[in-house]
Recover the amino acids of this structure.
């Protein structure tokens, strides 16, 4: 560690103060790449987020190391896999004495700030300024914890409020003589998907294409698929998640909401200011009326639930996009744009109905993949794209490298500045390692480790000793387990070797899985 800080002392001289770029790292929560028009135009137009990709680089194959919130955040701060930074799942507590990117940047003369969703249990350290949501935070009238430990309720909608706070810091609170690094983290579009009214008005009548696997029977796919509780049909709640007024469905036995669902629904609805609540209830009324009239079951019910989920989820994304636009506009107006590296990403991907699911956690591409794009005038050529496999362990070294600061050896990722600045360049990496831990709370996805190469994926659900081998080229939906297919015997052996190699390389010793 000493050595690292020794190097840091010289870092400010590596790039003249005025040349050192500012960094704005924008991360939303559960924002899948398919809900960004730069990646997929099917569901929503996100012109502001797209602008970052258009004026900079779009990573087509960006992945996470552990597809869940707290762990993704801890990885971004430390550049380490979960087993190294100690934050394994959402029940962990972040060790705030750890060396993180903001601490290193601050030492090197940067001003650092963190605004929005934090979700690491212990309060932020290493920031000159922070203001964070407690835990998951709420959509309407969110509370924010300040540096003096006070928690204040702010009027308005979380995505707007968090952006207001970030713009307020940029305009009035920071020290303009120093370069800055701002982490701007949205709550949206995380469950329970409460949109701002203007976007609810735009989205509540839209119809979206169904994924080919929406009605997939998950029973035929091994223990992990049987145990999971992330089904839109069975686990997404009608009231809290999909805003159906309980009064409409109390008398329909198979639709009757649980007490918890009713309680959560009332909690969220009551946070909406009374004058707006009437309008929100009016916009959602048709859902309750329809259920009361048709009393759907099974596939018929799933069909509706999927559409309502998409309407609310995408309406939440629309607010995120608008607010990204506000930040980009401010950068233009203030003249900061030309010397600021802006990144947009999510803490992971998210199921938008594939396999009938919502949520994340799995090593399957839907949730392991995350959107990632960056704009840095003078460094990244507009319209750059890359198919190189990058991972969220790379974010920390990338931020340091961009700032001209030496990357400490405890970080496990690779700086992406080379790919950003020289289009067509390659990374010295042929596979990605993955380890998911959280079980059984929230959605009961069994712990697993795995390796992903360009073409194949090997997953090991180690508590039940079940393997899954996938040929991504032939089976992009990742439905077919080839582990017992004789035609893939050599691939399986190679992938096991690669898994063991990565496990050793990244020093992930637990669980001990032997020679395989
Ligand atoms: C909450 C959600 C879950 C979600 C976890 C983790 N339930 O518990 O659906 O998987 O957060 O999400 S909710 O009913 O409270 O919304 S994460 O993004 O923080 O990892
Ligand atoms: Ca998340």
């Amino acid at each position: 560690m000493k050595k690292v800080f020794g190097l840091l002392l010289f870092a400010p001289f590596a790039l003249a103060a005025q040349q050192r770029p500012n960094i704005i790292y924008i991360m939303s929560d559960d924002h899948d790449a398919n809900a960004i028009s730069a990646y997929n135009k099917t569901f929503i137009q996100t012109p502001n987020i797209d602008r970052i990709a258009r004026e900079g680089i779009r990573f087509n194959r960006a992945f996470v190391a552990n597809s869940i919130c707290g762990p993704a955040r801890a990885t971004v701060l430390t550049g380490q896999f979960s087993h190294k930074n100690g934050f394994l799942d959402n029940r962990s507590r972040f060790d705030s004495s750890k060396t993180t990117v903001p601490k290193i940047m601050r030492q090197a003369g940067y001003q650092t700030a963190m605004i929005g969703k934090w979700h690491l249990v212990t309060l932020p350290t290493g920031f000159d300024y922070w203001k964070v949501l407690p835990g998951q935070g709420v959509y309407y009238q969110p509370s924010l914890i300040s540096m003096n430990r006070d928690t204040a309720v702010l009027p308005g909608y979380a995505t707007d409020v968090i952006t207001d706070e970030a713009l307020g810091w940029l305009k009035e609170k920071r020290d303009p003589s120093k370069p800055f690094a701002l982490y701007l983290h949205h709550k949206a579009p995380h469950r329970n998907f409460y949109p701002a009214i203007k976007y609810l008005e735009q989205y509540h009548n839209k119809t979206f294409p169904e994924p080919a696997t929406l009605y997939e029977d998950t029973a035929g796919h091994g223990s992990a698929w049987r145990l999971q509780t992330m089904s839109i049909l069975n686990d997404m709640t009608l009231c809290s998640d999909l805003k159906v007024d309980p009064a409409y469905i109390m008398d329909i036995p198979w639709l009757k909401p649980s007490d918890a669902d009713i309680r959560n629904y009332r909690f969220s609805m009551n946070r909406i200011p009374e004058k707006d609540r009437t309008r929100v209830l009016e916009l959602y009324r048709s859902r309750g009326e329809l259920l009361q009239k048709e009393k759907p079951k099974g596939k018929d019910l799933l069909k509706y639930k999927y559409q309502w989920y998409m309407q609310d989820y995408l309406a939440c994304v629309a607010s995120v996009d608008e607010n990204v636009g506000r930040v980009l506009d401010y950068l233009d107006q203030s003249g900061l744009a030309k010397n600021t590296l802006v990144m947009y990403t999510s803490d992971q991907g998210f199921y938008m109905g594939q396999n009938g699911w919502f949520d994340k956690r799995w090593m399957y591409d839907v949730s392991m993949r995350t959107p990632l794009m960056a704009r840095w005038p003078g460094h990244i050529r507009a319209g750059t794209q890359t198919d190189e496999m990058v991972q969220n362990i790379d974010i920390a070294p990338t931020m340091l490298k961009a700032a001209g600061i030496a990357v400490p050896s405890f970080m496990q990722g690779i700086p992406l500045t080379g790919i950003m600045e020289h289009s067509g360049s390659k990374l010295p990496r042929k596979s990605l390692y993955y380890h998911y831990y959280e079980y059984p709370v929230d959605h009961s996805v069994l712990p697993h480790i795995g390796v992903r190469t360009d073409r194949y994926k090997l997953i090991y659900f180690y508590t039940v000793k079940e393997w899954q081998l996938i040929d991504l080229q032939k089976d992009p939906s990742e439905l077919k387990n080839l582990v017992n297919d004789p035609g893939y015997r050599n691939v399986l052996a190679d992938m096991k070797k690669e898994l063991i190699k990565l496990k050793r390389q990244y020093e992930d010793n637990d669980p001990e899985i032997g020679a395989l």
